[in-house]
Design goal:
- By secondary structure, the protein is an all-alpha fold.
- The chain has a domain of 110 residues.
- It is 75% helix and 0% strand.
- The protein is built from 18 helices and no strands.
- Helix 8 runs parallel beside helix 10, helix 10 runs antiparallel to helix 11 and helix 14 packs antiparallel against helix 15.
- The longest helix has 18 residues.
- It is globular.
């Protein structure tokens, strides 16, 4: 799974057989690892409901067995599926418990078989949740802690995972320089050890950073290669996010209509798999590119308003803020004052992260 990707059919066949043996022989200490393996296959294939149920089963078995080594990873298994489904508050509680229960180990425990250290995974998803919910400094703190802990462990896949996930956090923060540095570190580790999923996402995010820095041709080539490599592993998880990243690169190359088609594909993929965490951003980007493609401001406004509604439902304050700024920048309309009031109300909910790009833009829009 580390080398070829979590969604490979061989992994599913082996874990399914292992589960049958567990049923025949009676519940033993192998069952948690078996359930986790199947959960990873389902998750990366974008089968979120099945992954959630397997994760909850994993957690129940770990609790019943008193398997302290498995509990942090079991909370991670449940938490990550909740994050992708947009249930940020519920996810946060599982991730907190995973971090609290986790004890770093120099090598994977014999009590549960994991691909990467669960404390690292919990910190990545905690960083993502904290950023989405508006705790931007805490998000960066978790991401930095994740990378330090991974380097201290020295476990190759954990280090590669942490570097790749760090690039993802910096991307959502819109920090181009940090995204590029983390993606290049992930690419080096993924290439050295043959970790296909790590390499695929590293190509994509490094390409995005290059495009944003003006190296559009090379950036687009890398993004296209990364997206294709990710798909070849059978992975459907993160497809909406990756297509959104690629659409930004296309837009940067003035291929607006191609970018809009990709965003339509991304929205359809999110609907099929119910991967909701980046849905508000898909709507915002569609509104942005609709304007660039010559559509009426009213068309863009509908996309922006949809993004705000989704973000509010999820408690994703950072995405609500980002889109509210864009709504206020539309051509003057009878609703302009209402949008400005809404932006001010959203801005007032933030208590940290004031140096971030999104909050700086909000302050400038509000004239503060």
């Amino acid at each position: 799974m580390a080398l070829q990707g979590h969604a490979i059919r061989e992994a599913e066949r082996i874990y399914a057989h292992a589960r049958e043996l567990c049923w025949e022989l009676g519940e033993g200490h192998e069952l948690p690892s078996v359930l986790r393996g199947l959960q990873r296959v389902r998750l990366v294939r974008g089968e979120l409901e099945e992954a959630r149920m397997l994760g909850e089963g994993y957690l129940a078995v770990a609790r019943r067995q008193g398997n302290q080594a498995a509990l942090p990873d079991a909370h991670l298994a449940v938490g990550e599926t909740l994050v992708f489904g947009g249930s940020l508050v519920d996810a946060s509680e599982h991730l907190r418990q995973g971090i609290d229960l986790h004890t770093p180990r120099p090598s994977p425990s014999s009590d549960v078989m994991v691909l990467q250290d669960p404390g690292i995974g919990c910190r990545f998803y905690a960083a993502l949740v904290q950023w989405l919910t508006g705790n931007m400094d805490q998000a960066l703190g978790y991401a930095e802690e994740m990378c330090r802990a991974a380097d201290a462990l020295g476990h190759p896949y954990t280090r590669a995972y942490a570097a790749g996930r760090s690039a993802m956090i910096h991307h959502v923060r819109r920090d181009v320089t940090a995204t590029r540095a983390a993606a290049e570190a992930a690419l080096d580790l993924g290439t050295a050890h043959g970790f296909e999923l790590v390499r695929a996402q590293a190509f994509l995010l490094r390409g995005w950073a290059l495009a944003m820095q003006g190296e559009t041709g090379e950036g687009l080539a890398l993004m296209t290669e990364g997206q294709a490599a990710w798909g070849k592993t059978g992975a459907l998880l993160l497809r909406p996010f990756h297509l959104a990243v690629l659409s930004e690169g296309l837009a940067h190359a003035n291929r607006v209509e191609d970018a809009l088609l990709l965003l339509a594909d991304a929205r359809a993929a999110a609907e099929r798999t119910r991967e909701r965490w980046w849905e508000a951003e898909l709507y915002r980007l569609t509104g942005e590119l609709s304007l660039r493609g010559g559509r009426q401001p009213s068309v863009a406004a509908r996309w922006f308003q949809g993004a705000v509604e989704v973000a509010r439902c999820q408690g994703a304050r950072s995405l609500e803020l980002r889109t509210s700024v864009r709504l206020c920048r539309l051509s003057p309309s009878p609703e302009s004052s209402r949008w400005t009031e809404a932006l001010a109300a959203t801005y007032e909910q933030f208590t940290e992260g004031f140096a971030s790009a999104d909050l700086r833009q909000a302050r400038a829009q509000l004239g503060r």
